[in-house]
Amino acid sequence: MGRTFYVTTPIYYVNDKPHIGTAYTTVAADALARYHRLKGERVFFLTGTDEHGQHVARAAEVHGVSPQEWADTMVVYFTKLWQHLNISNDYFVRTTSPDHARVAREFMQRLYENGDIYLDSYEGWYCVPDETFWLPSQLVDGKCPQCGREVEILKEENYFFRLSSYGDAVLEHIENNPEFIEPDIRRNEVVSFINQGLSDQSVSRKTLSWGIPLPFDQSQVMYVWFDALINYISAIDYGKDEQRFDGIWPADYHLIGKEILRFHAIIWPAMLIAAGLPLPRHVFAHGWLTVEGEKMSKSKGNALDPEQLTADFGVDGYRYYFLREFSFGYDGNFSYENMLGRYNSELANVLGNMVSRILAMVERYRDGVVPEARATAAADSDLEESASSVLDEVESAMSRPSFNEALQSIWNFLGAINRYVDETAAWDLNKDPQLASRLDSVLFNQVEAVRLASLLVLPFMPETAEGMWARLGFEDSIHDHTLPDAGRWGLYPAGQKVSKGDPLFPRIETSG
């Protein structure tokens, strides 16, 4: 087994409960992690929570509890939702944990000793919700250019990171590794930003106590964004277990929302270069989701709770929609009507109905026992060719990663299976005893195609894949099988008994 495939989500701020935006990144990371496990790779999938900073301290104060109590309460909403959505993370990092604090302090000390951190006074416009300083020229109508909320003037003596010293090194890395920042539109933004000239960044706060104290000055705490970025290495034992760290780092994919691109594509790489560490292979910034054409906000009452949607569509129906509907990397608009349409047409009609009708025919014509393939025809070769093609297409899409293209390829394959079912017409073959061997082959090929389909949908819809696998009569776990070995055609064990079972995706009837 080779090196570890390492994928991360951003760590989520505990000032509020998770919504479909945070779940979007997490489900995408999960599908990517599951796909690489399906390929037989060793995977480390990290998510977690960002628990320091002024925003959290103020939220705690409003609710009359300590910041730690607030964080402990809020983190449960994340861990429970990820469990509910079948998120297969290998570790959940909390920035209030002693292990993370130790690594953050060691990392900060290292940069300080290298001369990359210095003391200076600062005055500037500060956005509390985004925990970000802005220049007067960056403000839009006197407000935060990122979230549009009020900013306040802040003046204090802080420690600064010499970001300005590393602009050229980061730029050179981007030019030599264009795949480092994806999609292209985001890379262009980052290059443009660096070319305007980078200013040194404040990395500490003196007027705030809720944070990790600096190792070299206990009167100040680390700025929340600095502490947060270090989670990617604290979770894999940086400075504690060198062998484990070297076996996992660098990350293959930091999946993030585009609003935190600057931190991940400029500041984090500069911090790593300063510390003498390799840079992540890919920083992939996805777009924002709107709801029925409007930006999500609590005041509009449209910040959707994922559990509301899973109650209607099931967990896999939820996962499928968000991975299939949107082009990862670009903005997308959530529509309940579109979600319902995809569920009924693609999940209930195409996938669910296909599995039911194929297994029902085996039950009807062969008492549920799958026969051997004996008499082959051109249609069989076409189906086998489709099975081979879809594996390559999914690999190509997931290497980018493009979840909607991968699912489109899988649904094209399901379409080929359904055409095969219609063209071979097992119900007609069953009428003529002399065509029994041909019927055997047709039934085998249909079941074999379902076996491959179950493996292909596994990263995106794990419960559905397990349900298909069980209906095919397998007693082991689908997770015990890997591609490409299990993707070879003809591996279904003839003589095994299948069971149609309940519909995988019962249609959702609507009134009106």
From TrEMBL:
Gene3D superfamilies in UniProt: 2.170.220.10, HUPs (3.40.50.620), Isoleucyl-tRNA Synthetase, Domain 1 (1.10.730.10)
Residues noted as binding Zn(2+) in the record, renumbered to the chain: C127, C144, C147
Domain (Methionyl/Leucyl tRNA synthetase) ranges: 147-358
Catalytic activity, as annotated: tRNA(Met) + L-methionine + ATP = L-methionyl-tRNA(Met) + AMP + diphosphate
Keyword terms of this UniProt record: Aminoacyl-tRNA synthetase, ATP-binding, Cytoplasm, Ligase, Nucleotide-binding, Protein biosynthesis
Keyword Aminoacyl-tRNA synthetase: yes
Chief location bin: cytoplasm
Occurrences of domain Methionyl/Valyl/Leucyl/Isoleucyl-tRNA synthetase anticodon-binding (ranges): 384-485
EC number: 6.1.1.10
CDD domains assigned: Anticodon_Ia_Met (cd07957), MetRS_core (cd00814)
Subunit relationships: Monomer.
Function of the protein: Is required not only for elongation of protein synthesis but also for the initiation of all mRNA translation through initiator tRNA(fMet) aminoacylation.
Annotated protein name in UniProt: Methionine--tRNA ligase
Source organism of this protein record: Candidatus Solincola sediminis
Native organism taxonomy: Bacteria, Bacillati, Actinomycetota, Candidatus Geothermincolia, Candidatus Geothermincolales
